[in-house]
Specification:
Elements lengths: L1 E8 L5 H15 L5 E8 L6 E8 L2 H7 L3 H10 L8 E5 L6
GO cellular component, one term: cytosol
Keywords: Monooxygenase, Oxidoreductase
GO molecular function: monooxygenase activity
């Protein structure tokens, strides 16, 4: 299993547009072969801080995600919305239901 949490800080004036674009990316990402989970989380203390929780069956499926048309369109659409570069952090799943 390949699990990544992508930390994203957006500029406040772009928050709503970012959410809309990312909802679409999440919906399409969930349809990809090998996708187990693709969630968007918003910080309670900082509503401009988001996390994408991405889980794929393996690293190859996660890499394939970055070649899809919807991911490339999302990346371009949100590029100017970022307050700083996004940071993806890989995690190893230890316990799940």
């Amino acid at each position: 299993m390949s699990t990544t949490l992508v930390h994203i800080q957006v500029v406040p004036e772009a928050r709503d547009a970012f959410i809309a674009a990312t909802r679409e990316n999440c919906a399409q990402s969930r349809q990809e072969p090998g996708n187990l989970r693709f969630d968007l989380l918003q910080g309670e203390a900082d509503p401009n801080h988001f996390i994408l929780y991405e889980a794929y069956v393996d690293a190859a499926s996660a890499r394939a995600h970055k070649e899809t048309a919807h991911y490339l369109a999302w990346r371009e659409a949100v590029a100017e919305m970022m307050a700083r570069p996004r940071e993806g952090v890989a995690y190893q799943l230890l316990v799940a239901d």
